[in-house]
Amino acid sequence: MTATTxxxxxxxxxxxxxxxxxxxxxxxxxxxxxxxxxxGAGPGAADLLTFRAARAIAEADIVVWAASLVxxxxxxxxxxxxxxxxxxxxxxxxxxxxxxxAAREGLRVARVHSGDPALWGGTQEQVDRCAExxxxxxxxxxxxxxxxxxxxxxxxxxxxxxxxxxxxTRLGGGKTPMPPGEEVREFARHGTTMAVxxxxxxxxxLAVELLEGGYPTDTPVVIAHQATWPEELxxxxxxxxxxxxxxxxxxxxHTLFLVGPALSASGTRSHLYHPGHFHGHRRARPEARRALRxxxxxxxxx
Length: 302
Ligand SMILES: C[S@@+](CC[C@H](N)C(=O)[O-])C[C@H]1O[C@@H](n2cnc3c(N)ncnc32)[C@H](O)[C@@H]1O
Hints:
CATH architecture of the largest domain: 3-Layer(aba) Sandwich
Family: Belongs to the precorrin methyltransferase family.
Shape: globular
Strand order of the largest sheet: 5-4-6-3-7
InterPro entries: 4pyrrol_Mease, 4pyrrol_Methylase_sf, 4pyrrole_Mease_sub1, 4pyrrole_Mease_sub2, Cbl_synth_CobM/CibF, Siro_Cobalamin_biosynth
Bound molecules: S-adenosylmethionine
Keywords: Cobalamin biosynthesis, Methyltransferase, S-adenosyl-L-methionine, Transferase
CATH class of the largest domain: Alpha Beta
CATH topology of the largest domain: Cobalt-precorrin-4 Transmethylase, domain 1
Order of helices and strands: EEEHEEHEHEHEHEHEEHEH
Number of helices: 8
Oligomer: single chain
Helix content: 25-40%
Number of domains: 2
Strand content: 15-25%
C-alpha cells in the first residue's frame, strides 16, 4: 500500500491510502470535463452491485471507497491503473480536493458508498460542493441494507392489513442529534414496520423507546450484522429480548434492526393479485369479484 495525498502526490502518514496500483496521471482527452459519480455499492456482497455501479467504477480514473463498509471485491471492476483511495482516512476537505483535481484534469471519480447513497451517506454535502465547483455529479442508487436484510429474512415489509408503511430511521443521542419529532419513540406509535440503522451501540435505549412508543414486547425483530458479508449474522428476537440479544452477541456497529408485526404476519393476501380484482391488464372473475366485495363489506370497507 502506498500513501498518497488526495492530489495524487506522495504524502505523509495519515494521508489517504492507495492500493499498489499506480496513480493515473491523466486519462482524458485535453479539455474533457471531470465527473464525480456517487455510487451505491449495496450492503456488501459484490454481486449486489448494479450494472450501472460496476460501469461507473470501471470508467473511473480515481475510486474513493469506504473500505470498512464496502467489500474489496467491488474494486475488481476498477481499472488496473485507477488510483484507489480509502475514504476512512479522508476528511470531506480531502475528498473535495480529489474532486477539484478531477475537475482540473478532466478525470472521472467514482465515490463508492455502502448501500444506497440516499441514506446516511454524507452524499448531499458532496453534491453541494460539486455544484459550487461546477463539477458534474451523477448518483447511482444501490441496494440498501434494509432491503438486503428483508430478503435474507425472507420477509416482505409491507403486508396487507398489517403494515403498509416502512419507517427508515436511527436512534437519537449519538453524534447526530435527531430533529424534533423524529425520535424512535414517536415513530413507534405508528406500530408499522421500522428499519433502524446506526443504533446497535445503544440497544437498551432502542428497546426502551420501541416499548414506550407502544410496540408490544412480543413484536418480532430481525437483527442483522454485516448482512451479505461472509461474517453475516442474522438473529430473530422480539422487542422484549432485543437488548439481551444484541449484548449476548456483542453487536455495536454494522448492524440493522427490522421491527414490526409484518415480520411474522401470515395468512394475508394482496387484493392486487386476487382474481376478483381488475385493472388495466387483467379482468376480474365475476364470482371472485362478488366474494371480494362481500369480504370488504364484512370488514366495513364497502
Ligand atoms: C452510514 S449508514 C449507511 C447506510 C447505507 N447507505 C444503506 O443504504 O444501507 C451505516 C449503517 O447502515 C446499516 N448497514 C449498512 N450495511 C449493512 C450490512 N451489510 N448489514 C447490516 N447493517 C448494515 C447499519 O445500521 C450501519 O450502522
